[in-house]
Structures are given as structure tokens and as C-alpha cells.
Amino acid sequence: MTPLPKTFYLRSDVVQIARDLLGKHLVTRMDGVISSGIICETEAYAGTTDKASHAFGGRRTERTEIMYAEGGCAYIYLCYGIHSLFNVVTNSMNIPHAVLIRGIIPVIGMDEMVRRSGKTKVTNDFGIGPGKVSKILGIHYSHSGLTLTEKPKNNGDSAIWIEDKGILTTPDSIISGPRVGVDYAGEDALLPFRFTLNFTGNPVFNNQDNR
Questions:
Q1: Whole-model pTM?
Q2: Residue-level pLDDT at 81
Q3: Residue range 55-76: average pLDDT?
């Protein structure tokens, strides 16, 4: 299990990174338990020039300061006082680009993910929605700032990383559209910065063992 290298996150094109994250495996180790899912939906946020970004206009707060760190770490914030939303910080130091992970297809640690969810079984939308992603993977906003490029040596430490398992995507397998819940961003709300894997006819994603 090898995390993506830091060079993956240091690239300047956050939109391309959001596309490239599709098909990758998001993995967590919480309390010694491994769980993971295939990333199937992302949203790009282009920093200080993007009206939908928490860093628009160069805004810096205690919560968002991690967005200005060097790419390859987690930005996790609390939404509506309930949901922890997991974002991947990208680009160089002081360029606050980030990618929100909006959906996964559960793969490893299914029993633990079901327990975390409070449900009794896995449904097709089990990992769809950014709040659900964090909940079933055990991600909490207190984990904001964790590196994504290294796994701690101590098994008891909380860890989040992303792996490339060789799932290939093509332009035909990716659907793009406007981001969700950013109407306040005016014309930037219409930017096609949300990317979703098209599962139709793809046996990898139609395999019920992966749901």
C-alpha cells in the first residue's frame, strides 16, 4: 500500500487533479482499522480567484490556514455543525487550491463502514455525498492537516492516504458539471468543476462486491 507521491499534489492545475483523483483509492486507518473506497466524485476549488472557494480573495482564517500549506495534506472542515468534509490540498505553498471528495465506492472494511454509518446494510448511494464519505471512513474535522503522502509507523495513529490501484479513466468515463451548493458564487457557480465517474458498462464499478 503506497500513497500517491507529493508530486501528484504539487501540480498547478487543480481541475486536472480533481479529474485524476477519480478511480484512485481513498484509504484511512483509524484505531488500527483499515477502510477504503474508490473515489467516484470530486470538485475542484481554485483558490483566491474562485468565488466558491473558502480562500477566495486571499481570505485566511484559523480553519482555512491549512489550505495555504504545500499540497499533499488534508483540509477537513465542519459543515452545518454536523458533517466533516474531506478535501485534498494541492499546489505549492501559499496557493490555496483544494479538491473536495464528494463520493466513494466502498471496497475495504465494509463491516466497519456500515457500523460507522449507523445503517444495517450497504446501498448503492452508501458512499455518495461528502458527509457520507467522511463518516464511513472515520474522517473527522480534527484530522485536518494530516499528511496524505506518508503512513505513520505507529499502527494506532490516525492516517489518511490515497493510492493508485491502476483503475484507468478515459474522457468518456468522466462526466463534468457545476459544483453543488455554491449558488452564492455567482458566475463561478456555473464552472464545470465537478467530476463524476460514469459507471455504465464498466465491470469494475458494477461489481456488487465493491458497493
A1: 0.92
A2: 87
A3: 97
Domain membership of residue 1 (yes or no) is: no
Mean of per-residue pLDDT scores for the chain: 92
Query: Looking at the domain assignment, is residue 78 inside a domain?
Result: yes
Q: Quick one: which of 35, 4, 36 has its CA closest to 17?
A: 4
> Residue 127 and residue 106: Cα distance in Å, rounded?
7
Q: How confident is the model at residue 206 (pLDDT cuts 50, 70, 90)?
A: very low
- By DSSP bridging, strand 97-108 and strand 194-197 are unpaired
In a domain, 43, yes or no: yes
DSSP string, 104-169: EEEEE-HHHHHHHHT-SS--TTTTBSHHHHHHHHT--GGGTT-BSS---SSTTS-EEEEE------
Helix axes 130-137, 110-117, angle to 10 degrees: 120
Q: Is residue 32 situated within a structural domain?
A: yes
Is the pLDDT confidence value at 208 over 70?
Answer: no
Cβ atoms of 54 and 64 closer than 8 Å:
yes
CATH number reported for the structural domain that contains residue 66 in this entry: 3.10.300.10
Domain encompassing residue 135? 6-210
Q: How many domains does the chain divide into? A: 1
Q: What is the mean pLDDT of residues 166-181?
A: 93
